[in-house]
Amino acid sequence: MSINLVCTGCGAPLQMEAENERGYVTSSAFLREQPLCQRCYRLIHYGQFSPSSVTEDEYRTSVMRTLARPSLVLYVVDLFDFRGSLVRGISGSLRDHEIWLIGNKVDLLPRELNRDRLSAWLMREARRQELEVREVFLVSAKTGEGLAQLWEAVKLRARDRQAVAIGMANVGKSSVQNKLLEHAGQLEGQAFTVSPYPGTTLGGFTLKLGGSGVTLADTPGLLGRFRLQDRVCQASLADIVARVQVRPRVYQLQPEQTLFLGGLARLDFIAGQEQPFVVYVANQLTVHRTKLAQADELFKRQVGAILTPPCPQCDASLQVLKPKNMSFEDGKPVDIVISGLGWIRLSGKTVKLKMHVPEGVEITVRPALGAGRRGAGKGRMHGSARAARPHITTGRR
After folding, report:
1. Does domain 53-224 bear CATH number 1.10.645.10?
2. pTM metric for this prediction
C-alpha cells in the first residue's frame, strides 16, 4: 500500500506532533488510504472550520513545484468578482503552459447576460492581464452547468500531462475539481475538501483519475487583502457572498443622496441629473438609502447594526471608510466594481460621485457587463469610452 504524505482534502503535509498546527493527523488516520487531517475531518463531518492560510511565498512555491513540467492550467476565476479573483503577478510563470480560463459561478449572474458575450469579454480581460488563454469555459460547480463539457475537453487534452487547478481562495476551485471527479466516476472516497470559507486548501497534491489517463493537480487558494470577502469574519462572509442568482436592485437617486452597501461600501451622489443606479450584490446584503447630509451620522450610529457587515467580530479597519472622488461624462453605461462585494451600474449620464470603502479595498471601473447597444448612451466618457476610465481622486471626509 502506498502512503500519502499530504492530506487528501486540503493538501497540507501530514504531521503527528503538533495538534494545533496545519496537517495534524492521528496515527490511525495516517495509515488510511485517503488520510484527512484533523482540520478537514472536523470541517467535513462537523462543520467546524479552523482559519488558516498560506503566505504568498508558500503559495508561489507550491504552484511552481506543481508546474515543474508543462501542464494544462485550469485557471479558476469567480465570475461575480473576476478582477478580484485574478492571482497577481503570476502570468509570467504560466507562459510555458496551456491556460484554460474556468469562469465559475455563472449561475449567480443575471439571466440577461449573454453567454457568448461573457466568454468573449473574459478572453479580452485575460489578455489585458497578459494571460495567453487558449480556451474559456463558463461553469457552475453548484448546478453542474458546463462541467460535463469541461471534463470531456480535459480528457481529450490532458492525457499526456497533468491538469493543474490554480486560483484565488474562495473562487470554487475545489468544488470544480470535485465535479470533474464526479464525471470521472471517482468522487466517492476521494474528494477535495470544500467549504464556504477562504483558505480551505493549504497545499498542492495530485489525483490520478482512473482509466481516463488524466492526472488532476490541486494548489492552495491565495488570500488577498484587496477583496472584502478575505477581510470580513466568517459570520459576515455569509452576508456578502452570493449563494443564488443575484437580483439587480434599481435605485432612482437624486443628487445629495447616499447608498450604503451594508456598512462596507458607500456611494454618495454629489451632482448630476436624477438617474438610476443598479446594485449587484448578494441578495441577503442590506442596501440602505439615505440623505447625504445624514450619511456620516448614520454610519457612526448604525455601523455593525443596520449597516452590517462589518460586525463586531470583523477587523476594526473595516469600520473606517476611505473616500474616492469619481466623475463621468455622458457615455456608455459602466460598472463600479468593489472587489469581493459586487458592483454598481451607472446609466451613462453625467455624474459626480464619491465612493467610500475600507483602506486597501480595490475599486475598478469597466464597461457595463453585458450591456449591448440598447444600454449605450450618447456621447463619451472622460478618457476613453472603450477603456471606461473615469476621473478618480482620493478625497477626504
Report:
1. no
2. 0.78
